[in-house]
Design brief:
Blueprint lengths: L4 H36 L5 H26 L6 H20 L3 H20 L9
Helix pairs in contact: 1-2, 1-4, 3-4
Length: about 130
């Protein structure tokens, strides 16, 4: 087993991918809850709840694509992953403002950890020898 820079880079990429996978899983659960509310008749508006669930599923697909790109070492996945997680920071702070400190803390920790892991993943070297 190698312990050089390539191994460390792949470990960092796998860690970032795992964190993106956790985010995708949470979003998938949220979509399921929205659909379940519609089925149980607890949703305020069926169309709105189903539209939200569909949009969340688009985000799930995006998070899964980013996770796959990060685990594969694809250079394209770094920038959207950074943007994705930077956009989660205002979400976390709005949760604090809404009195949801536990949710806000979780979102903040996940976003910062993912940002650190993505940032530590070295960029793809495309220079020719």
């Amino acid at each position: 087993m190698t312990t050089g820079p390539t191994s460390a880079a792949s470990d960092t990429g796998r860690s970032a991918a795992l964190l993106m996978l956790v985010q995708a899983t949470i979003l998938m659960i949220l979509a399921g809850i929205l659909v379940l509310d519609v089925v149980r008749g607890k949703a305020d508006g069926t169309t709105q709840a189903l539209t939200e669930a569909g949009l969340v599923l688009v985000f799930v697909a995006a998070a899964l694509a980013l996770a796959r790109g990060l685990v594969g070492g694809s250079g394209w996945a770094r920038t959207p992953s950074v943007v994705w997680n930077v956009l989660l920071l205002p979400v976390a702070f709005s949760m604090f403002g809404a009195g949801q400190a536990l949710v806000g803390t979780f979102v903040l920790v996940m976003a910062v950890l993912t940002l650190v892991m993505v940032w530590r993943t070295p960029p793809l070297d495309i220079s020719e020898d």
